Amino acid sequence: xxxxxxxxxxxxxxxxxxxxxxxxxxxxxxxxxxxxxxxxxxxxxxxxxxxxxxxxxxxxxxxxxxxxxxxxxxxxxxxxxxxxxxxxxxxxxxxxxxxxxxxxxxxxxxxxxxxxxxxxxxxxxxxxxxxxxxxxxxxxxxxxxxxxxxxxxxxxxxxxxxxxxxxxxxxxxxxxxxxxxxxxxxxxxxxxxxxxxxxxxxxxxxxxxxxxxx
Length: 214
Ligand SMILES: C[S@@+](CC[C@H](N)C(=O)[O-])C[C@H]1O[C@@H](n2cnc3c(N)ncnc32)[C@H](O)[C@@H]1O
Prior knowledge:
binds S-adenosylmethionine, 6 helices, alpha/beta, Rossmann fold
């Protein structure tokens, strides 16, 4: 069953950008750049947060004038900051309050869906992936950057600290095997999957990649 409860994390929203600033500059910049490479048509940012992808979208729209940008972000505190960032950047992006489990878009209507650091938090991963499969065009692409469960001793640590972590990190889970979930979904083919040697335990490793409809 889909989880429809609206997330609301004012403190997390307030500290997100300052806490992430160093990682954004030193670790995530190149990966975020790769997520927006050669985009065309209609793009959807799934769980936009405070708009971390927006500066990259801005540069992409400067190069590809025909891009149409959409985002969803269910947490009103994150969404307010995303709207503000879009205004500051003068970025034309339609930001909706729905969650990934019920996307407000027609079947077969989106060319590129981007999920960055969001499948750790989405409560109903199956419902969200079904929605990605529904709205993505048959020649579209689902691109992602996620932190996932580690192997070995770190996996045990992640499982042990996860209940506390979830409380402090707005429902984020350290112990999701998201890459395997994506690989095993028979509605998609994996066209790229890379484990990244970034991250600081317990938030490690990261994966980046892309799926296309089968
Ligand atoms: C760690 S933040 C990442 C935000 C942004 N994508 C980034 O790269 O910084 C995770 C985001 O997922 C959002 N989220 C929570 N539940 C969601 C859902 N059901 N559908 C979509 N996004 C959701 C949270 O509100 C939060 O803004």
